[in-house]
Design a protein that fits this description.
Blueprint lengths: L1 H7 L2 E4 L6 H10 L4 E5 L11 E5 L5 H8 L4 E4 L8 H14 L4 E5 L11 H16 L2 E7 L6 H4 L5 E4 L5 E2 L4 H13 L1 H7 L3 E4 L5 E2 H12 L4 E4 L2 H9 L5 H15 L9 H6 L6 H7 L10
Parallel strand pairs: 1-2, 1-4, 2-3, 4-5, 5-6, 6-9, 7-11
Antiparallel strand pairs: 8-10
Helix pairs in contact: 2-7, 3-4, 4-5, 7-8, 10-11
Length: 297
């Protein structure tokens, strides 16, 4: 594609104030590439050389269209989970296509499907289907459960509770997902190869929650346990905290997806696209030694 193309090529990054989009924006900036940061609050947009910022909400199709004008490739981070999340996604996709975006790199989820056990993964499937239907160029990244959120699964007493059974999951770090996204967004040759592709993005090994807590205990010196729950027990525990039904089901179904074997995927995507191995639980805890500081010893 040549240097001239890269000079004119603008990458749009949504969610640039968030945990994943922010990582991608920082990586794009380090590469010295022009980017448009599309955010809900312009005052929170990070400032980088070669970057501009535009304010838009996913549900505002016209506003999102204006924000995407001049963008060639758009990195679309999913909206915060809500009952109308799919409507927000479809609105944003329509706005991007109307603006002339030539390619959308969408951050989906592992095993996205219309009947996925994890209810939020169904939303990702229908978003993917809509992107395909528009005819726009696309690449779908399907990360598994985030390693960064694993500490949040552990309560203050050191217990993970949920209906995960003996299923396994290959937890993946946000840093690795950001590295994969950046490779697909910024490298024109890799982008050409990734056109129309779907990439599973996972960690280096799949573990049961029992094996996971054993590892967490051994590495941190804190006692961490896994207590299996039934589906109804999991829903009731979430409802008791005031969660709406869609959120309670989403939370419980993330565990149920592990039990169903849908998270038992170890993909070569991270080393293949980034040139470095996927981060392990050990590596994550070395970088985040206080990750379980909320757990009583």
């Amino acid at each position: 594609m040549g240097d001239d193309h890269m000079t004119k090529h603008t990458i749009g990054v949504t969610g640039a104030t968030g945990a994943l989009g922010g990582r991608v924006a920082a990586r794009i900036a380090r590469l010295g590439l022009p980017q448009r940061l599309i955010v809900r609050d312009i005052n929170r947009a990070p400032e980088y050389p070669g970057s501009t910022a535009a304010m838009a909400a996913y549900e505002d199709t016209a506003g999102f269209e204006r924000a995407c004008r001049g963008v060639d490739t758009l990195f679309l981070v999913p909206a915060t989970a809500s009952e109308d999340r799919i409507d927000k996604h479809l609105s944003a996709v329509d706005g991007a296509v109307k603006a002339g975006v030539s390619r959308i790199v969408y951050l989906s989820f592992l095993r996205a499907g219309p009947a996925a056990t994890f209810t939020f993964a169904r939303t990702h499937f229908f978003t993917e289907a809509h992107i395909r239907a528009t005819g726009v160029g696309h690449t779908f990244l399907r990360p598994g459960l985030y390693l960064d959120l694993l500490p949040d699964w552990v309560d203050g007493e050191g217990v993970i509770r949920g209906p995960a059974g003996d299923g396994r999951a290959a937890w993946v770090s946000r840093d690795d997902v950001a590295d994969v996204a950046t490779a697909v967004l910024a490298d024109p040759e890799r982008a050409a190869l990734a056109e129309g592709a779907t990439y599973d993005v996972t960690g280096p090994e799949a573990l049961t929650l029992g094996a996971t807590v054993d590892k967490l205990s051994a590495l941190t010196g804190r006692t961490v346990r896994y207590v299996p729950e039934t589906w109804e027990e999991a829903l009731e525990s979430r409802r008791a905290g005031g969660a709406p039904e869609w959120a309670a089901e989403g939370w419980a179904s993330s565990y149920a997806a592990i039990a169903a074997g849908e998270m038992d995927v170890v993909a070569p995507t991270v080393p293949k696209l980034t040139g470095h191995p996927a981060q392990s639980i050990e590596g994550f805890l070395r970088r985040h030694p206080s990750a379980l500081s909320h757990v009583s010893v």
